Amino acid sequence: MRFGLLGAVVAMVAGFSEPAHSETLSVSVTRGLMKDQPYTIIYPDVLKATTGTGDDLLTLDYPGAPLQCVATLKPGIAAMTADEALANFDKAAVEADWRKYFANFTVTAQSVGKLRNVPALRYTGDTGKTDKGNQSLVIRAEAVDEGRRYAMECLVGVDVAAEAQPLIEFLIANFSTRSDGECCIDPSKSE
């Protein structure tokens, strides 16, 4: 299992169980301290983090596995609740946007979920097989808070998606639109 340690990592950083090994695992916290761009991103140290540019706050990669998540913040967005975003979700437009990169992309589900502190529109998409035979899932959660769109978007290979799901859920559940977000929420117990 490529992500064999993953379940233990998520459980340990969230305080849900005792470590199975004598190793100590920890999380990193990245905060936006500017008043007009507050956020908190909490992620296990096993992820390689790269500071983003533009709207990208942080890119998180799982070494040796096809999993990458990007946290973004875009200012100047009209107020919209997660329920309104779901009601107005334009599946065809989202698919057309993704098809610039993945010709066979399809949205497979959309719902209302939650970031750390606010309800969020969530959707899942499937890239379909690429010319090289790869296939991935896209899992995205986004929310508008005080005129800013926050999103956590993960691209994960279909062969490891089930194993990576707990980590993706952890990242989404612990991404806050505030600069004082605290660790950690157990995503399996979220409302």
Secondary structure elements and their pairing?
Layout: H1 6-14, E1 27-32, E2 39-44, E3 48-51, E4 56-61, E5 67-75, H2 82-87, H3 91-98, E6 106-114, E7 119-126, E8 136-145, E9 148-157, H4 161-173, E10 175-176
Antiparallel strand pairs: 1-2, 2-10, 3-4, 4-5, 5-9, 6-7, 7-8, 8-9
Helix pairs in contact: 1-4
Describe, in plain words, how this protein is organized in 3D.
The chain is an alpha+beta fold. It contains four helices and ten strands; from the N terminus they run αβββββααββββαβ. The chain has helices spanning about 5-15, 80-85, 90-100, 160-175; strands at about 25-30, 40-45, 50, 55-60, 65-75, 105-115, 120-125, 135-145, 150-155, 175. The strands form two sheets. A seven-stranded antiparallel beta sheet has the order 3-4-5-9-8-7-6. The chain has a three-stranded antiparallel beta sheet with strand order 1-2-10. Strand 6 and strand 7 (about 120-125) form a beta hairpin. The longest helix has 13 residues, at about 160-175. The two termini are about 30 Å apart.
